[in-house]
Amino acid sequence: MMEETKGERGRSVSVGGGERPRLTFFVVHHAGGSAPVYLPLARALPSDWEVILLELPGRGRTAGARNCANMAEVLETLLPLMARRSHGPFALWGHSMGGVIAYELAHALAGAGRPPLWLGVSASLPPQLHAVEIPRARGHDELLSFVRELGGTPEEVLAIPDIAEYLLGVLREDLLVLDGYRLRDRPPLDIPVSLFGAESDPMASLSRMEPWVELLASNCIKHSFEGGHFYWLDAVDDLAVAIEKDVLAVAPVVSRDIERKFS
Fold it and tell me: Does residue 136 carry a pLDDT above 80?
């Protein structure tokens, strides 16, 4: 079962879970990305989890909406969508820019007295490195080269001028959110966290993600994969298994499949 929910600007896509999901699992997309890219991961996760693919405005079915201008607007857009869909235990996972957004969502929810059970951060540069690592050149050729270096977008798609310009426009707007993003002075995030990455990632390899531990209250689990920035596109099932194991380690009641899958 797949359902869509639209907020004032953003939207979410729901997969699985049935009438009484054991867990709500939120996924936050990368810069320039959208919810449908993560449908393979949603379908690989346990069928008794409701997977909610969050989507920022300005892309896909909300292409006519204004993009979020900063992280505050991102949170104002996504938190109400999450509140509508989560009425029990929940977890968060974000890829690339989505990892930073998921981290900020987790902080906001923890501050409101409703922290997630678990946070997963995938191929995401730690905020401490953003000032020197986020690309500043935003012209067509520079961004096109950046997208090609990271992979994940078929060359035949990039070869169509109108589509390429649309995708680069969305990416450009998302990167502006990261331009203005700065870490706030606050206690470390005190929930279980897992890091996911690939050493061949040209931007956010697992070793370059190491400074994330400075922002956390306890040790985190680290998962290394083969491949580049979009490593998970070729390892959806392996990623889903790693996510489920880590979530079950902190909340073993959220899946009926634990004995079958890990005995």
Answer: no
Residue with tokens 């099932």, as numbered in its chain: 237
Handedness of CA 124, 125, 131, 136 (dihedral sign): negative
**How high is the pLDDT of residue 61?**
85
Question: Rounded to whole angstroms, how far apart are CA atoms 240 and 43?
Answer: 9
Q: What is the DSSP string of 119-135?
A: EEEES---GGGHHHHS-
Tokens of 255: 């899946």
Could you identify the residue written with the tokens 């499949």? 257
| Cα(172)–Cα(134) distance, integer angstroms | 11
Cα separation, 239 vs 205, in Å, equals 16
Q: Is the pLDDT of residue 260 over 70?
A: no
Residue at 197: amino acid letter: G
| Contact by Cβ (8 Å): 161, 236 | no
Which helix (DSSP H) or strand (DSSP E) does residue 198 occupy?
strand 193-198
- pLDDT at position 10, please? 81
**Side chain identity, residue 77:** T
Residue 259 has a pLDDT of 38
Segment 63-111, tens digit of pLDDT:
888 999 999 999 999 999 999 877 789 999 999 999 999 999 999 999 9
Helix (H/G/I), strand (E/B), else coil: 49: strand
Q: Any alpha helices (H) in the chain, and if so which ranges?
A: 39-44, 71-85, 97-111, 130-133, 140-150, 155-158, 161-179, 236-250, 258-262
Distances (CA, A) of 176 to 102, 103, 234: 17, 18, 29
